[in-house]
Write a structure and sequence with these properties.
Length: 110
């Protein structure tokens, strides 16, 4: 997760044992809130290996480990409870814009 959610995650990390993991850390982010909690951050930036082919195996290993952690409930994404489709995508955008969502928003395509 990235953007404002990443910044909010730094502020919400549990003191000493919190760990924020992201595969999308673009932009300017303040690490101070995370540092003050003694928590850790792991960023896996996958774009370059996908484009260049360099270190693809290493990044694949990292993503497999992240998958294992998610399956073992060690990574818990925050996903908004809203139910959006392509027909209601404008409502999803409005909810995000108005700050009425919590976490990532899912738009189902069927």
């Amino acid at each position: 997760m990235g953007g404002a959610v990443l910044d909010a995650s730094f502020k919400a990390a549990k003191q000493y044992t919190g760990h924020v993991a992201s595969i999308l850390g673009w932009g300017n982010h303040a690490l101070a809130p995370l540092s003050f909690r003694g928590a850790t951050y792991s960023g896996v930036f996958t774009l370059y290996p996908l484009i260049s082919g360099k270190n693809r195996k290493q990044h694949g290993d990292i993503l497999r480990k992240a998958t294992e952690m998610a399956e073992n409930k060690q990574l818990i994404p925050i996903v908004d409870q809203g139910n959006y489709s392509l027909e209601t995508v404008q409502a999803a955008y409005n909810a995000i814009s108005n700050g009425k969502t919590k976490g990532k928003v899912v738009v189902s395509i069927q």
